[in-house]
Amino acid sequence: MTTDGEYVPSALDWVRDQVATYERSGGTEANTLRDTGIPIIVVTMKGHASGKVRKIALMRVEHGGEYALVASMGGAPKNPGWYQNLVAAPDDVLIQDGPAPFAVSVREATGDEYAQWWERAAAVFPNYNEYKARTERVIPVLIASPC
Q1: Residue (of 106, 95, 87, 4) closest to 44 by Cα position
Q2: What is the topology classification, in CATH, of domain 13-146?
Q3: pLDDT tens digit sequence for 46-74
Q4: How far is it, in rounded angstroms, from Cα 62 to Cα 124?
Q5: Residue ranges, the chain, pLDDT below 70
Q6: Would you say 93 and 58 are in contact if contact means Cβ atoms under 8 Å apart?
């Protein structure tokens, strides 16, 4: 599972600090994206090239026990690095949404499923629509389902 191996914290101070505080507190602290008030989850995965453990905080978009992982990168022209990690090892992922992490399997949404999850994600974080308008790429939405 993704907890095995060397953990390499994010190079971004605020991400590294948020993940550490969230995990240490069992999700009772650092559980929103900065000052937005929007809840987050922590996603743990293996680096596709390095094999090292990576952790990120993402918006909490949950429906029926599944989670959307939106690879928006603020509307940048390329996908975030973590997207490749999840695609490379979709069954070696943990999500922490509260006190303890749990195993999930990840798949990429397409078609009607994509549209439905995009709508859910934009309801949580309307800026996703701005990001979508800003880029020519299709922003991937990955669905994480508990194992």
Answers
A1: 95
A2: Pnp Oxidase; Chain A (2.30.110)
A3: 999 999 999 999 999 999 999 999 999 99
A4: 10
A5: 1-2
A6: no
